[in-house]
Amino acid sequence: MSGLRVVQSGVHSLIQDEGRFGSHHIGLTVGGPLDRHSFRWANKLCSNPINTPVIEVTIGGLVLESTVDTYFAVTGALVDLSINKVPVDCWAVNRIKSGDRIELGYAKIGIRCYLAVAGGFDIETTFGSCSTVTRESVGGLAGDGSPLSNGDLIPCGETLVHPPFFSPVQAQPHHLTTAPESTRLRVLLGYQQDCFTEQQKKQFFHGQYRISERNDRMGFRLLGPEIKPSIGGILSEGICQGAIQVPPDGQPIVLLNDRQTIGGYPKIGSVLSLDLDKLAQLGPESIVYFEEISIEQAHNLRHLAEIKFQYSEASIDLPSLSTEIEALLVASNPRGMKTVSSAIDSGSYLRAAQLINQAHGTILIGTGFPVNGSFETDGPVGAIALYRAIEAIGGAPVLVCEAPLCTLLSTDFNTHEIKIGEDGGKQAQEAISEHQPALIISIERPGQSSDGRYYNMRGIDISEHCADYDSFISLSVCPTIAIGDGGNEIGMGNIAEALEQLDIRAASTGCDELLLADISNWAAHGLVALLSVISNQDMLADWDNKAVLQMLSEGGSVDGVTGENTLTEDGVHSDVSQKLVGTLRKLSGF
Amino acid sequence: MGIMQRVWRPYKKFASYCNDGRPVINQAITISVAGENALIVYFSDKVDTQVAARIKTCSSAIRLALGLHLIDLIPSYGSILVIYDSLLTDHFAVSKAIHTVAGASSIQASALSASHDGKLITLPVYYSLESGPDLKSLAENAGLSIDQVIEIHQAIEYRVYAIGFAPGFAYLGEVDERIAAPRLATPRLKVPRGAVAIADRQTAVYPAESPGGWNLVGLCPTPMFDAKADPIMPVSTGDRVVFKAIGKQEFIDLGGTLDTLGDLK
Predict the structure, then answer these.
(1) Is the residue at B263 inside a domain?
(2) Do B77 and A137 touch (CB under 8 A)?
(3) Which residue among B36, B45, B79 places its CB closest to the CB of A188?
């Protein structure tokens, strides 16, 4: 059985689905998430049905180890969240692989986090729900109400496809408030409200209440102005979610998910469910105040919130976008890349974009295909596009190439020069220990064929003019991405079999993620398009293809196909590439 | 205009007579807002066996009338809490439905004589000093013999007025005033599953081991709450219960155990 193994259960971590409904008449309470808004968003981000079980983590400290490849999201309180010690975002989808460790720190804003996995946890229900109610010994992993404990395996399956992407604008913890603010709790008067005088109601609605130490999943006890009903007790009656009970000491208690189903204290009314989500995220000493609303207002607010939630649709379906980009970039098929593209699992661009997005630190970008003592325009343009995008999302890119390209680029970019004729392994090892890269990319670098030599598209041995970047890929301990458009570039080892149908001397160097395009530079733009969506920045907006080609041309670049010093890439006019960038930008919703 | 005519206000029906000429007691109901998706229907503020019968009938009728609009329902001594799906319906529609069925059910409930409504369930009890550690003090305080206490406890047909506090905990009433006893000054940390207990004029069988401050008079071998059984509970709100004394051997034969008593004093 696969799933997430509990390495450290944290302060208090419980399995919760929406709650247990329809069993109040036999004394079972509802259970379920205290902050329903965050609970629902955790599942929505993972593309799960809303009633899918999640982990409610109170305060934090949960550490999980995955035995499966999947995606997960943490919503609710803001915590330091990391995968294998590398920080990742809350309120966003993150990928984990088998063996990865998810760590939640301690809540910084708010109290409760919700962790959902794509596809959901597979847990048996008791009385129609797996919500854990410890007091009732019901629900949870074993169905006996136990909280999660170290060593537990929370079953879930493998998910390989990224759930549709929500822009960070939609998925946000709007309801979290920081400590000094006082939180408004809207109240519907009801139940025994007639037993409270107008004077007492005034005090109740004008006073400020402090959350006491006595707050848990059953209810929050508040301290503030005393309000005393004219009666001390009533015949025990049903208690609804958010009911405000006033015991003889006059200090109100807001009753929550794990409350007893019936009780005999007078109640003044109930808190609006939307505001209970806020209350659930407040700790002791936080200040709240009450504001009266009518039942009609309550229904309106509830409906509006529901519509807002339902209408928050995934802005872009990332896997589909990736597939669309992959098809677009090999559509004209001048060198057979479309023909061999079926050898690569769909979603390669998205997986590569995620590798870039998750790489924190230095990213090496190798480029430069030698032609007649100079270098091709295809490669460096894309490398520059990637360089800019990586910088924009906070990474540290370094361009790796040989002279004369390196000399040209070093004026505007961080570069690392590699030399022709050096011991490739040694050169790569030194560069890796110098830069400690988190990711290595190759774009349009010649790759060694099975005989260890480099060939151009016409099958001519160009080893004399090539430095060894292959060793960077083969010696790296970090993930690697390679881009090519002909079959003789680094990375093509991944599809060696498919390449046999093309009339070329194929490269045998592989990589983790191979990207194909009709022109390698285009692949970079495709990647930047996906990175734009992921980081919610329109990074293709100010791309000026001609200006970049101009700069390279002045440095002596040549077109790889025509051999001419023109503002073209593989015989294609710059305007065509510029137009493609516009199409990609539109596809990604900008 | 149409909306104005449908202004929601609780209306009260006055006592009327049904066809057999018996007065229908307390037919008036009041509906109050409890929360954003909950209404509470008040039948009476007194513990009354006829009210309990009517609440039972009415609960089933509300379930039927609201169908999928109902999220949950809590019948209790004198009220029913109705939790509805506020995305599918509203308090106008729900209170209208409640009024309709409450009117019908009051006639139905009163048509049944008090002794023929609800199920009658017999719960066997092993009364003894061993299984009921508070029998002695209860008898002493009441000025009765232990046998008299046991006899009086069995003499009444109880009504299930409410289920709550813990899953399966049924409040039965009303206990004969002679053996009514206040809760213990210091509640026990552990009351065994099946303990038959008295607090004020209520009696109950603990469905599971839990803390508790009621006076323990015996042990009942019948499971009061079993998630795997159908029905989960032998009783529901509004049903009637009688207790029948059994011996130790019969208690054990019926699946009872004394092992859980531990150091219970």
Answers:
(1) no
(2) no
(3) B36
